[in-house]
Amino acid sequence: MATSSVDICNSALYKIGSTRITALSDNTKGAIICNDQYDRCRKEVLRSHPWNFAITWISLAATVNTPISDDYDYEFLIPSDVLRVLDTNLTTDDWEIGNNTDGNKVLFCNDDTVKIQYIKDITNTTRFAPDFEEALAFRLAIDLAYAMVQSQSVQQQMFQYYKAALANARSFDAQEKGQDMIEADTFIDIRG
């Protein structure tokens, strides 16, 4: 299991047959490209699935602004570590995310309090699941392949490996939580 972003970058470099780095701040081509691409790739893979290690709930703080849309009564500031909102505790699905007059990302709704479940921007690599790390390394290898070894075929191969690693990681992640319970309702009762 990787313990740092450098370990993940080295895994990606190894996958394309390139030279390892000792730090993202190294003055080598590999380190410069890894430093440039790592955060974007990490956020992309985090956002791609509701990973158990990255899901959390938070109460949002209301702003003092009047929402720009007449459809909503309140707006709540979305924290900067929110990569994707998954759910809310709102009683209706009548809400949306947008930008307010100050240019901040906010959630608009008609309730005066709101909690969201979201994918958090996790930077601490020790929290990553091993399969997630492998998928992230392959995702990074896609971006590194052409720049480091000038090979589109290696890049295409890394893309195929990435898809397989991502599917594998998602499968294991999905197995690490309880099953959703199906509640009976009129439709289910009629079919039974």
Number of strands: 7
Terminus-to-terminus distance: 47 Å
Mean of all residue-level pLDDT scores: 91
Q: Which regions are unreliable across 5 or more consecutive residues at pLDDT < 50? A: none
Rg (CA only): 21 Å
Largest sheet: 4 strands, antiparallel
Main sheet: strand order: 2-3-6-5
Number of helices: 5
Order of helices and strands: HHEEEEEEEHHH
Shape: elongated
> Into which percent range does the helicity of residues fall?
40-55%
Q: Which secondary-structure class do the elements indicate?
A: alpha+beta
Strand portion: 15-25%
The total tally of domains equals: 2
What labels describe this entry?
192 residues, alpha+beta, 7 strands, elongated
What does this structure look like?
- By secondary structure, the protein is α+β, with helices and mostly antiparallel strands.
- The chain has 2 domains: 5-49 and 129-174, no CATH class; 52-120, no CATH class.
- It has helices at residues 5-15, 29-47, 130-149, 152-174, 186-191; strands at residues 55-59, 61-62, 74-77, 82-88, 96-99, 105-109, 115-120.
- The strands form 2 sheets. A 4-stranded antiparallel β-sheet has the order 2-3-6-5, with no helix packed on it. The chain has a 3-stranded antiparallel β-sheet with strand order 1-7-4, covered by helices on one side.
- A hairpin with a 5-residue loop joins strand 5 (96-99) and strand 6.
- Helix 3 (130-149) packs antiparallel against helix 4 (152-174).
- The longest helix is centred in the C-terminal third of the chain and has 23 residues, at 152-174.
